[in-house]
Amino acid sequence: MANMQLTPNQFVLEANRDEAVPPVSQNLESRRYQMFPTLSEAEMKKLQRFGTVRTYHNGVRILEAGHTTFGLIVTLAGRIAISRYDGLGNSWPITEHGRGEFTGEVSQLAGRPTLVNAYAVGDVEALVIPPESLRALVIAEAELGERIVRALILRRVGLLEANSGGPVLVAPAGHGRLHQLRSFLASNAYPHTVLDPKEDEQARSLCEYYQPGPDDWPLVVCPDGSVKKNPSNADMGRCLGLLPDLDEDKVWDVIVVGAGPAGLATAVYAGSEGLSVLALEQRAYGGQAAASARIENYLGFPTGISGGALAGRAFVQAQKFGVELAIPAPTTRLICDTYPLEVQLAEGKRMKGRTVVLSCGARYRRPALDNIAQFEGRGIYYWASRIEANLCQSEEVILVGGGNSAGQAAVFLSGHAKRVHMVIRGEGLKATMSTYLIERIHATANIELHAHTEIVGLEGDEDGLKGVRLRNNRTGEERDSNVCRVFLFIGADPNTDWLGDCGVDVDPQGFIRTGHDVTKAQCRANFDQGIYPKDQPQRAALETSVPGVFAIGDVRAGSTKRVAAGVGEGAQVVSQIHAFLANLPLATH
Ligand SMILES: Cc1cc2nc3c(=O)[nH]c(=O)nc-3n(C[C@H](O)[C@H](O)[C@H](O)COP(=O)(O)OP(=O)(O)OC[C@H]3O[C@@H](n4cnc5c(N)ncnc54)[C@H](O)[C@@H]3O)c2cc1C
């Protein structure tokens, strides 16, 4: 992966994109007053103690996309012009902030680099609030904090809807790695632009300059103007500030591994109770729940909520409480014969924690088909988000699986695809799916159920999947289908293969045992060496065989595999962490 820097505006064409301001939806337009609120004089007075007054002369750049990190900038006098910026040098005016209005979007809560440019229009006086003071402010001034955080979230939604700001991905349409990177960005709610060199003059100029080889796609222009050839997800994380430079010497009260619903709940509850929390996530926040098109059984959402929206709110909430979230940060080893405990990242760093919470959930099962990996992201999908749904507009698709997640995905896809062929091995859905979903499937005209059926072969080329072979297990009959998109929802295995070194006790399927279910206590060494007190109280309900290591959510043996259950355990574990920390000998604090 090469990393190069564009000179500002190097690829801006004479016909700039300035005139084409990407639109936002009517729904968002109607919430413009919430997106760009004007604070009252009384509210501005409340903000004073959180910031410092600064002056900027006319024309000065106050914020530089991809570079400047700040919390909130509140205009006191003059005006601040805000524009979207895409790293290639294109910009789109968004708005101007006068007295009482403020700059920023949701990245600012965590002190990540801004996605927009800002310039002083006339001489400007502004109150500059750093990220940590912004977090203190939204907690201390609850009502004002609500208005501010709502505005920050809506602005990110605006950038996402307009698909503007953030990195620019340049690749031929349909490129497999392009899809993977887009999926990574979309899962982390990062706006981005895709340009096809066949269609776009700017993209063509960029390719002529960088001469990408076959393995160099996509070219990615980061918001700071740096250009990367076929970057890894970690490169993308660094490019966006999602993956911070973590300090190996810092000892965290809690290291959370996995930012699905359970891990995010721990992050929020532990952060809100003053514990220092590092959350490490290998791909995208929200875990499996983020793949759910509509969660209808989560308390408090009578009309349902998409998993992405629920996870997005939790992610912002965790940032509000000062949780450090690193994405993508896959962990590869838990080291528990030392104290503080250590968690090793794939890139080699070892992070230290007084406690570790394993909330690493489960991963989708893959059918035993030789060439399946070749088509992943190019016809084979393990989730059905809006991106995948848009790919199969008016197409026939196959969906494999008979569980609740399969049912939800089928209903969601039926709103986009011409026909959804639901393929199941068994006789029917009754044993595996909730009744309300079965009824909905029966009521949906373009969902067709194929019982006693499985996929036995995949056909395609480098462009993607071109067809599948299906077998009826009762009759043995095989037939070919020219369906090019297959969605697999056939269950999940626990993400515990990286825990071997530490010897965390797991059941035969690999799910982690906790509390009374633990069959063999390991890592007694730390007790014998006096690192833990000999009279450590009985193992807590969510504590694993290793003292100080807890397991929650789907990865825990015997847990209820539901969002609410994971969130409940995520909250419950925090009191057990407090109890563990309170019992540590003083020397280890
Ligand atoms: C399509 C679908 C629809 C669903 N619909 C519903 C529903 O309607 N209602 C309901 O209650 N439940 C639903 N579920 C189930 C629900 O999503 C799960 O029970 C829930 O997400 C479990 O949360 P978790 O945090 O325990 O684990 P997960 O959601 O699996 O999250 C674990 C996280 O850990 C990360 N991780 C794993 N290993 C590592 C590592 N080594 N290093 C760093 N990070 C790691 C993963 O990337 C992931 O983000 C659905 C599931 C799916 C797949």
From TrEMBL:
Keywords: Flavoprotein, Oxidoreductase
Pfam families in UniProt: cNMP_binding, Pyr_redox_2
SUPFAM superfamilies per the UniProt record, alphabetical: cAMP-binding domain-like, FAD/NAD(P)-binding domain
InterPro entries: cNMP-bd_dom (IPR000595), cNMP-bd_dom_sf (IPR018490), FAD/NAD-bd_sf (IPR036188), FAD/NAD-binding_dom (IPR023753), Ferredoxin-NADP_redctase_2 (IPR050097), RmlC-like_jellyroll (IPR014710)
The keyword Oxidoreductase is annotated on this UniProt entry: yes
Domain Cyclic nucleotide-binding: 35-155
PROSITE patterns named among the record's database cross-references: CNMP_BINDING_3
GO molecular function annotation: thioredoxin-disulfide reductase (NADPH) activity
Protein name: Cyclic nucleotide-binding domain-containing protein
